[in-house]
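Reviewers of the previous submission asked for a worked example of the structure-prediction workflow described in the proposal, so we include one complete record here. The input consisted solely of the amino acid sequence. No template or homolog information was supplied to the procedure at any stage.
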Amino acid sequence: MKYYDLDEEEKEIERAFEAGQLKPLKNQAKWRKVLMEAARNTLAKNANINLRLSQKTLIKLKAKAAAYGLPYQTLASSVLHRFAML
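From that input alone, the workflow returned the following structure tokens.
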């Protein structure tokens, strides 16, 4: 079961990969280092927040998270991330 949705650009990349149409990068070690640093900076979880939710909202959030097979805090973080990036 997938726990993510691909956008159209990501689907196009996936199709190209599966068709064997992608070529290796030159200077792979350099690009790997650059991209790893970018991912580290992007994905770093270095801030905590506290939210007050109604009991009903929390119960529904936990139920949806369970349906996706995720911890409810992960689902809440994902929803907030997606909304913030719109």
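DSSP finds four helices and no strands in the chain. We consider this example representative of the routine output the project will generate in years two and three.
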